Amino acid sequence: xxxxxxxxxxxxxxxxxxxxxxxxxxxxxxxxxxxxxxxxxxxxxxxxxxxxxxxxxxxxxxxxxxxxxxxxxxxxxxxxxxxxxxxxxxxxxxxxxxxxxxxxxxxxxxxxxxxxxxxxxxxxxxxxxxxxxxxxxxxxxxxxxxxxxxxxxxxxxxxxxxxxxxxxxxxxxxxxxxxxxxxxxxxxxxxxxxxxxxxxxxxxxxxxxxxxxxxxxxxxxxxxxxxxxxxxxxxxxxxxxxxxxxxxxxxxxxxxxxxxxxxxxxxxxxxxxxxxxxxxxxxxxxxxxxxxxxxxxxxxxxxxxxxxxxxxxxxxxxxxxxxxxxxxxxxxxxxxxxxxxxxxxxxxx
Length: 349
Hints:
The protein is mainly beta. It has one domain (2-348): Beta-galactosidase, Chain A, domain 5. Helix content is 3%, strand content 43%. The protein has helices at residues 61-65, 242-245, and strands spanning 2-10, 16-23, 29-33, 39-45, 51-53, 74-75, 81-82, 86-89, 92-95, 104-105, 118-124, 127-136, 147-155, 160-169, 173-174, 178-179, 197-200, 204-208, 214-220, 232-233, 246-250, 260-267, 272-278, 282-286, 297-298, 304-305, 312-316, 331-332, 338-348. A hairpin with a 4-residue loop joins strand 13 (147-155) and strand 14. The protein is globular.
């Protein structure tokens, strides 16, 4: 694999942002920036060998700075929703920003998607990798503890995009890291994803209330609605809503030491097939239901992304573990080392 670095612009603070281009031996290519760890593009072949960018995104750094739906970014300190924007740890109460109804979503006002990471190129087991590091100070976004975090990207020769996470803290803190890429296997500007077939290895989903807040319970998947244990064409669903296209699915094996299959996606027109493997105990499936809340989201190449233009499969733990510790382990304590690995593996049929 090769990695090259180029200038991607400048932040209002004057800090310079870089764009890294990762290419594997088969010509698969991904562009990733050290601002937010954003996957700006990911080009993979169809069954005829034609390359297309399959991730939704923006044309420039400035467009990402203008906020948006977390295209391709690292989300944290807690990916997902902390209900009520509050929690108690070690006898202390913490109040967070409520930036999603009554919830704190994806770490608050200045989450990891809006921070500049320190980048370096490393080699592990003969593979070139892009390693991003971040120190998130105590009380930033009102979270306890100074968190030292790294996220490492690699394009492997089996056509996997590998993402590994590591973190330590000096105070007990909620922690739930993921990447928020939206995929459209027909091409980022190819319309909706209703023609995609989806499989998710899960027999339960996280229960939520009318505000999409987690309530500390699980529900069994429902046939014809959110049961994706066998491949389901999204266009065959009678309805698509937050109960089947913006919800956390629980893998029956929970957290594992090695990545296991949690989801597959197939797009019949192009033949592109994506497997998602992870050590995480679950995955948030999101089909871009809110991309058109304020009109279609502007995208790359002058295109627009209306609702359902891309789907995200965000490997993670139960986001609100801090309030419902029996539901998950998204909490990190001093002396512990958080580690996690996710693979997005591409092939054709």
